[in-house]
Design brief:
Blueprint (H helix, E strand, L loop, with lengths): L2 H8 L3 E7 L4 E9 L5 E2 L2 E4 L4 H21 L5 E8 L2 H4 L2 H12 L5 E2 L8 H8 L16 H19 L9 E5 L3 H12 L3 E5 L3 H11 L2 E2 L12 E4 L18 E2 L10 H9 L3 E2 L2 H4 L2 H11 L4 H9 L1 H15 L3 H15 L1
Parallel strand pairs: 3-5, 3-6, 4-5, 7-8, 7-10, 8-9, 10-11, 11-12
Antiparallel strand pairs: 1-2, 2-5
């Protein structure tokens, strides 16, 4: 499919390709839906193999942001941006100022924030030129702690369904990805007495969690096959397919990664195996709840935490809808989120 056909398939309003040869900037900004308000979604900096990979990623991610923001009750639309290239080589103040000018050209239709390989420092440089960026050090900072808190609350809600108690004490949780969110999730799990197994492509991150929290390191080959109660993918998306789902030895999938499932067939496969899947954009919405409050101009961390903790209740609502209608949690989450969009 060409780009316009893909936009139609995903339901996008606008795709913006940007380029500034002087600083090496190549990026795609995808605005999926602004029915509820301006689009909010972070910028991901990744060394994609080609433009097609980047476009595929940004289309899926921005669509997911529409559903995430709607389900979280933010009154915001969905968007996302990806910068193509090696962040270790390209980052500079001039680079992010150039990117900020492109964001400004959208006239407030899109707000961005931290995502993979975009730090608070990077956001601060964007903010020097553009007001359309949140998660800024001057106000709320990196939203990762709120994302981790939301995933933890969602996980507890899922546990109440799977294990007849929301306590995670003694439960074995496999955490894939020890980035800013995954590391903070490990803290929550350790504090509650969970048994933590961890994997990351960066061995130093794994070793740190093993040394400080007593986690158990596993290999990439063991990731989908190790015995556990809960699998928490917290790295990049498209982790579970209808093919590899049969390898899982858990009862609950609850992670921070966006687009954990390759497609709807993967969700169906999990359901057939009796594995409860908590839709990622329901439980990982803590970060956008934080950023959304920053957009309102009346930021209060206490209110943010109160809203993030309500992810527990939203998760139970999705599970109840799935049970009531006899559909997968994947389908129930979509129905719930699109219902909010259509009502708006």
């Amino acid at each position: 499919m060409n780009t316009l056909e893909q936009m139609k398939a995903y339901g996008h309003e606008q795709i913006v390709f940007v380029r500034d040869e002087a600083v090496g900037l190549q990026a795609i900004i995808a605005i999926h839906d602004t029915t509820l308000g301006p689009a909010l979604g972070g910028t991901r900096f990744w060394n994609y193999g080609n433009e097609e990979e980047a476009l595929f990623d940004v289309l899926r991610l921005s669509q997911g942001m529409t559903m995430k923001n709607a389900a979280a009750g933010l009154g915001l639309g969905g968007g996302k941006a990806v910068i193509i290239g090696d962040p270790a080589k390209l980052k500079s103040r001039e680079f992010f100022h150039s990117y900020a000018h492109f964001i400004n050209s959208l006239g407030g239709k899109y707000y961005t924030a931290e995502d993979v390989n975009i730090s608070e420092t990077d956001v601060a440089m964007i903010n020097e030129v553009s007001e359309y960026v949140v998660g800024t050090p001057a106000i709320s900072g990196n939203p990762a702690p709120f994302t981790a808190r939301g995933v933890y609350m969602g996980m507890k809600a899922g546990a109440s369904k799977c294990f007849a108690s929301d306590s995670l004490e003694g439960k074995t949780v496999v955490v894939q990805g020890i980035g800013s969110v995954g590391r903070k999730l490990c803290n929550y799990l350790a504090n509650e007495g969970a048994i933590i197994k961890v994997y990351d492509i960066d061995r130093a991150k794994v070793d740190e969690v093993v040394d400080t929290l007593g986690a158990i390191a596993i290999s990439g080959d063991e990731l989908l096959t190790t015995e556990c109660d809960i699998f928490a993918p917290c790295a990049l998306g498209a982790v579970i397919s209808s093919t590899n789902a049969v390898s899982l030895k858990c009862r609950l999938v609850a992670g921070a990664a966006n687009n954990v499932l390759v497609d709807a067939a993967a969700g169906k496969a999990l359901a057939q195996m009796g594995i409860l899947y908590l839709p990622d954009y329901i439980i990982n919405a803590g970060g956008v709840i934080n950023c959304g409050m920053e957009i309102t101009g009346s930021y209060d961390v206490g209110r943010v935490n109160e809203q993030v903790d309500k992810i527990y209740d939203t998760t139970l609502r999705i599970l109840a809808l799935a049970e009531e209608k006899g559909i997968s949690t994947y389908q129930a989450a979509e129905e719930y989120a699109w219902g909010v969009v259509m009502a708006g």
